[in-house]
Write a structure and sequence with these properties.
binds NADP nicotinamide-adenine-dinucleotide phosphate; about 350 residues; seven-stranded mixed beta sheet; alpha/beta; single chain
Length: about 350
Amino acid sequence: MTGLPRGGTKPTLAVVGATGAVGSVMLQILSQHADIWGEIRLLASPRSAGRKLAVRGEEVEVMAISEEAFVGVDVAMFDVPDEVAAHWAPIAAALGAIVVDNSGAFRMDPDVPLVVPEVNPHAARVRPRGIIANPNCTTLSMIVALGALHAEFGLRELVVSSYQAVSGAGRAGIDTLRQQLSLVAGTELGTKPGDVRRVVGDNTGPFPEPVALNVVPWAGSPREDGWSSEEMKVRDESRKILGLPQLRVAVTCVRVPVVTTHSLTVHACFEGEVTVDRAREILATAPGVVLFDNPEAGEFPTPADVVGTDPTWVGRVRRALDDPTALELFVCGDNLRKGAALNTAQIAELVAEELGATA
Ligand SMILES: NC(=O)c1ccc[n+]([C@@H]2O[C@H](COP(=O)([O-])OP(=O)(O)OC[C@H]3O[C@@H](n4cnc5c(N)ncnc54)[C@H](OP(=O)(O)O)[C@@H]3O)[C@@H](O)[C@H]2O)c1
């Protein structure tokens, strides 16, 4: 892939997983951003072939994924489960597409860059496998703010707790919360041990416990020594994006009954003393970050207000009481926009610019 033909042909884009939770938001973003793409092909499993989805104000028919579907594609965004991406992304790359993959299949591959355009855009240019990975949504919901603070203060350690929305588990997560809410709404449930579980029954969907009227201290699948896959992703991916392989990271991931937008509390330790005033200046001017922090007036980010927006929202900025080198933050980010589709679209736009595409 050396660039587009002279004369301004626009690159062909494939959206793989167009029917999913992330794919649906991707189609909205493609309809809202500058129109740099030529043909946009929508791919999904054979189950969805023939469905019509709207993008850029037009109805486009979904194609079943196949080798032929990638022929002539310049950039392919993958919003599909890990095993589907692991199989198809190398095929798309071999057929000449530059792949931007939203799954976890390639993120820690040393030959695949893990890119956040506000933090490490240069990494997108070095892609030995023709694949660029998009970080996981929990990491992405905080990393733009932390990258800005790291550039000034030098990050040394992170202690993080997440409050993750159900859409982080895809359409199945959203459906599960909505169904459980319909079972508990208007009842007296939530007052006796196990009363919610008895009404919800075995239908806990992708979660190990009922999520309505509850919080669940688990996200992902089991890893060694009691850690979850989601917690390991936050640690490993933060290290890779920031270029800090030894960064100390402690994280607990928790699922809450929010449809979309992850929240995190962050205790961030830096190389030297920090001041809240300087931290606020950095956060107020960092691209992709909104500082919304006036607790006396009841102003701080919450998922109900942040959902559907692009930036990383930061509030409750305080210096740690017992450590002058540490800050406490509350961060919110829409897990389907910056946490997934938006970051992927931004990476694809970097690639398109490299190929010479213009709106
Ligand atoms: N949800 C988030 O907050 C989030 C954030 C960051 C990254 N991600 C990652 O993004 C990816 C998609 O997540 P999601 O939440 O959008 O999942 P989802 O709602 O379950 O959607 C999955 C998509 O993959 C397609 N698909 C499934 N099996 C396929 C196959 N064998 N061949 C081709 N297409 C297939 C589905 O098509 P059909 O409709 O035809 O089944 C659907 O379009 C996952 O890797 C996830 O980990 C998700």
